[in-house]
Specification:
Mean pLDDT: 87
Largest sheet: none
CATH architecture of the largest domain: Orthogonal Bundle
Low-confidence stretches: none
Distance between the termini: 94 Å
Order of helices and strands: HHHHHHH
Number of strands: 0
CATH topology of the largest domain: Cytochrome Bc1 Complex, Chain D, domain 2
Radius of gyration: 32 Å
Number of domains: 2
CATH class of the largest domain: Mainly Alpha
């Protein structure tokens, strides 16, 4: 065997082996980076979903005395018309024209505005709805100063009753 002529073959084999190892290492690094990226995205999505679910399921408790308040404004055409006008001015931008929580500003809020047409909301007392409009919570502002006349707020409650499915 001629060692001088076979030496370049060793060099070629070494270069080939080195090239293969480098390619394998680069692929392993790329795969690790993809796994890290995927795990990071999954973690962020899970945390976001958990936060959203927590925000949407947080109960809104109303003091018993407020929940038991009776609506002193009779639900009639005049009251509902007044409530609708106030609704369009103060509420529809978040809750939507039909109270579905799909108003033009809804997407900008941290919490999704509640769908006011649902059985769960419609089963709440007038006093509870009045309290929530008056006091507000989180993204829902208090309307005590914007709508200072209690009869106007009660008219909004009467209008909300017309939104049921």
């Amino acid at each position: 065997m001629n060692y001088v002529t076979s030496f370049p073959n060793y060099i070629t084999l070494f270069k080939l082996k080195h090239s293969i190892l480098v390619t394998i290492n680069l692929r392993i690094i790329a795969m690790k980076n993809k796994l890290i990226l995927a795990a990071s995205v999954l973690t962020v999505c899970t945390i976001s979903l958990a936060f959203t679910i927590n925000q949407q399921t947080k109960p809104w408790s109303v003091p018993e005395k407020n929940a038991k308040m009776a609506n002193p404004v009779k639900s009639n055409g005049e009251s509902i018309s007044a409530g609708k006008a106030l609704w369009n001015e103060h509420c529809s931008s978040c809750h939507g024209k039909k109270g579905l929580g799909d108003g033009s500003k809804a997407a900008q809020l941290k919490t999704q505005p509640q769908d006011l047409s649902t059985r769960a909301l419609q089963s709440q007392s007038d006093g509870s709805l009045y309290y929530k409009i008056s006091e507000g919570r989180d993204d829902m502002p208090s309307f005590k100063k914007k709508i200072p006349d209690p009869e106007d707020m009660w008219s909004i409650v009467n209008y909300i009753r017309t939104l049921k499915k």
